[in-house]
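RECORD TYPE: inverse folding
INPUT: structure tokens
STRUCTURE:
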């Protein structure tokens, strides 16, 4: 990271505003243009300069490009943190800059509201279907309570929530995790999750689009991997489980929440379920073949669809809570 490039990148009022906005939340280029009141090509040029200087990072979701403040490498982190503090001081001490930032944040609030409205629209379109499925299994709050208890015996560390859907698992464990990556293939679901999770600090949460059979992360990147009501979508469950094992650190854990075997064939067509649940024996073999040591399963009965929780630990010692780790951004290959 070049100090010259950093200060040259910040020697522009628009780029200062962008840096301040990205410290608050991850934004699409079009959303930045809306807040700044500038054309998208012009904003893209400014963003390019910030990215080249290592102050911002891009990632693509379909046709959208999202920006977030750079996490930086291990040596650069203090520099980036100091720059963020410097901009905060400038806002406090400079009335003109403070007024601009306040106006930008008002417009940012409109972006947040728009995201939440879009999420509500999505829920409204699908609420009936989801309610029908929820009526068949153990209430979500009971499942979450048992899952949290099952994972409460060790630090969560860096968490990967595979198939995050609405972002509920990421939200549930945000206060316990060092960092969470909310991962999903469905772009519309990621936008719903972004609306749900946008109140969390940008350094704590990251949303990534991709396929669970080909995770875009380096080996040993996470301490805890979650697959909550996800594995039944896999034609061949060993593929996502092998990928989950690859990105789990030695001593790390995988938690799988899914259904016991059932005969509700209509779920294949209506909800695209490829598998009608998993037996304990089947899951034990899948978890073992992926490289995890399984523990005793948890069974949540009392509804037509029985919910199961399976926990597995990657061979090797668990990471101590004080042991340094790479950031999730550094882990993405």
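DESIGNED SEQUENCE:
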């Amino acid at each position: 990271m070049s100090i010259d490039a950093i200060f040259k990148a910040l020697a522009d009022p628009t780029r200062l505003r962008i840096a301040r906005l990205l410290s608050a939340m991850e934004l699409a280029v079009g959303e930045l243009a809306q807040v700044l009141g500038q054309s998208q090509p012009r904003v893209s040029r400014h963003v390019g300069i910030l990215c080249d200087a290592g102050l911002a990072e891009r990632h693509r979701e379909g046709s959208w490009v999202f920006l977030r403040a750079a996490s930086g490498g291990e040596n650069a982190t203090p520099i980036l943190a100091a720059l963020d503090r410097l901009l905060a001081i400038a806002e406090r001490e400079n009335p003109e800059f403070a007024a601009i930032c306040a106006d930008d944040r008002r417009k940012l609030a409109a972006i947040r509201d728009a995201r939440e409205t879009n999420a509500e629209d999505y829920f409204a379109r699908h609420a009936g279907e989801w309610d029908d499925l929820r009526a068949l299994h153990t209430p979500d709050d009971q499942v979450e309570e048992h899952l949290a208890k099952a994972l409460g015996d060790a630090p969560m560390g860096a968490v990967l929530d595979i198939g995050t859907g609405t972002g509920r698992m990421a939200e549930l464990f945000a206060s316990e995790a060092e960092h969470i990556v909310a991962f999903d293939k469905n772009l519309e679901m990621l936008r719903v999750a972004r609306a749900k999770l946008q109140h969390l600090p940008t350094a704590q949460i990251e949303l990534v689009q991709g396929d669970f059979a080909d995770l875009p992360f380096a080996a040993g990147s996470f301490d805890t991997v979650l697959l909550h009501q996800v594995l039944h979508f896999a034609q061949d469950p060993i593929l996502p489980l092998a990928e989950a094992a690859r990105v789990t650190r030695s001593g790390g854990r995988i938690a799988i929440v899914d259904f016991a075997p059932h005969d509700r064939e209509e779920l294949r067509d209506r909800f695209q379920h490829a598998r009608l649940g998993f037996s304990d024996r089947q899951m034990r073999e899948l978890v073992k073949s992926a490289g995890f040591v399984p523990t005793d399963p948890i069974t949540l009965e009392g509804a037509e669809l029985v919910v199961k929780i399976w926990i597995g630990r990657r061979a090797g010692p668990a990471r101590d809570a004080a042991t340094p780790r790479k950031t999730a951004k550094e882990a993405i290959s």
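NOTES: Residues 1 and 54 are 6 Å apart (CA to CA).
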